[in-house]
């Protein structure tokens, strides 16, 4: 089944064509980073305007790159939440119009479930596909969720962040360090190969599978500000100190994510671990998870499939459609949608 996926939940306008939930024929992502950069973060109003401008050209490009006409599309999938309401609305309305005009099923997808299905994309043979029960860490700009996937479409939320999401923490830390937006890639870049001179705190949230990253952010703020000097204003940290603090920050987030994910996997006797969401693009996290899994299969999609894309939305929709699920024409956006 050939599914056209559309994703407009946040600051990427994306469209993809995916065959049978696994094989990517095209995967186009138009980033809005430049439109938001001068504001140091995502401005919702600008995001929805950008989606309006980009969505049709992006869909057209996905069809062109796949060398496929609209008449071959067998279903249209779209992110229905969670995300920015105005942004989600652009994708959902375009998807509805296309599915209606083509006379094919419409499938609204939970963005978090979509992230998980990145793990099914481009598996070379079914043997490489994840087995259940599967422990999934979805770490993105808005979520840090430990989710147990017991089968296709069956989820149980085991733990989540009590305050900032991991990606949000990276973005805020980058801002404190003067590294700009988006923060995750910026921190990874300056921290590369740096042995941190200090250690920042880890919030273990013992006895739970929850996370907390706001204390780490405050600790970093104190380090950046330093002790006030008697002779006047504080000095901005040197470049070497910024690199060291970025490395210490990254180390702290990665250590907690890896340890708690493996703790959860052992707790539920998972048959495998999946790491997805934008933060799963982080090289140190990928490396540490692969190094510490103690024999458990660990699946981490390539970085471009960890960050927001529409191929994961099309993949997820395939498995829903295969179960006979589809949405009606009154499908609406759900900005605070949860999974499990
Ligand atoms: O999944 P995603 O693309 O969008 C959301 O659904 O939120 O995740 C975006 C988040 C941002 O906070 C970004 O800073 C973070 O993922 N991110 C990274 C890296 N690449 C993206 N964090 C750490 N290291 C990276 N290499
Ligand atoms: Zn996402």
Short description:
By secondary structure, the protein is an alpha/beta fold. The protein has helices spanning 33-37, 44-66, 85-102, 111-117, 166-176, 183-191, 214-225, 239-267, 283-292, 303-306, 311-322; strands spanning 2-7, 12-19, 23-31, 75-81, 106-110, 134-139, 144-151, 154-160, 272-276, 298-299. Helices cover 41% and strands 19% of the residues.
Can you characterise this structure?
The protein is α/β, with parallel strands linked by helices and 340 residues long. The protein is 41% helix and 19% strand. It has helices at residues 33-37, 44-66, 85-102, 111-117, 166-176, 183-191, 214-225, 239-267, 283-292, 303-306, 311-322, and strands spanning 2-7, 12-19, 23-31, 75-81, 106-110, 134-139, 144-151, 154-160, 272-276, 298-299. The strands form two sheets. It has a five-stranded mixed β-sheet with strand order 3-2-1-4-5, with helices on both faces. Strand 9 (272-276), helix 9 and strand 10 (298-299) form a beta-alpha-beta unit. The relative contact order is 0.19. 5'-O-[(R)-(carboxyoxy)(hydroxy)phosphoryl]adenosine binds at residues 10, 140-142, 167-168, 170-171, 182-185, 188, 277-279, 281-282, 307-308.
Count of beta strands: 10
Largest beta sheet: what is the strand line-up?
3-2-1-4-5
User: Which CATH top level class of the largest domain fits?
Assistant: Alpha Beta
Mean pLDDT: 95
The proportion of strand residues reads 15-25%
Assigned CATH architecture of the largest domain: 2-Layer Sandwich
Percent range for helical residues?
A: 40-55%
């Amino acid at each position: 089944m050939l599914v056209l996926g559309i994703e407009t939940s946040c600051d990427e306008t994306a469209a993809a064509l995916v065959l049978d939930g696994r094989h990517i024929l095209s995967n186009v992502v138009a980033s809005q980073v430049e439109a938001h950069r001068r504001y140091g973060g995502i401005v919702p109003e600008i995001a929805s305007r950008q989606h309006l401008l980009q969505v049709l050209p992006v869909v057209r490009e996905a069809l062109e790159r796949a060398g496929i006409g609209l008449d071959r599309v067998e279903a249209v999938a779209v992110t229905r939440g969670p995300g920015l309401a105005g942004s989600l609305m652009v994708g959902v309305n375009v998807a509805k119009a296309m599915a209606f005009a083509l006379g094919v099923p419409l499938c609204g997808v939970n963005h978090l479930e979509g992230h998980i299905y990145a793990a099914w994309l481009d598996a070379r043979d079914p043997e490489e596909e994840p087995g259940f029960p599967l422990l999934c860490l979805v770490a993105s700009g808005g979520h840090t969720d430990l989710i147990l996937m017991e089968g296709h479409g069956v989820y149980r939320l085991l733990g989540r962040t009590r305050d900032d999401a991991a990606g949000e923490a990276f973005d805020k830390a980058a801002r404190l360090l003067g590294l700009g937006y988006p923060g995750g890639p910026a921190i990874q870049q300056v921290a590369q190969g740096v042995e941190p001179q200090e250690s920042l705190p880890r919030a273990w949230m013992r006895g739970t599978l929850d996370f907390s990253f706001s204390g780490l952010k405050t600790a970093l703020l104190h380090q950046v500000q330093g002790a006030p000097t008697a002779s006047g204003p504080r000095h901005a940290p040197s470049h070497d100190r910024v690199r060291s603090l970025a490395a210490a920050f990254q180390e702290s987030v990665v250590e907690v994510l890896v340890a708690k994910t493996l703790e959860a996997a052992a707790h539920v006797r998972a048959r495998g671990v999946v790491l997805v969401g934008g933060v799963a693009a982080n090289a140190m996290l990928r490396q540490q998870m692969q190094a510490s899994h103690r024999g458990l299969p660990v699946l981490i999609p390539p970085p471009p499939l960890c960050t927001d894309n529409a191929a994961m939305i099309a993949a997820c929709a395939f498995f829903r459609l295969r179960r006979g699920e589809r949405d009606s024409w009154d499908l609406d956006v759900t900005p605070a949608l949860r999974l499990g």
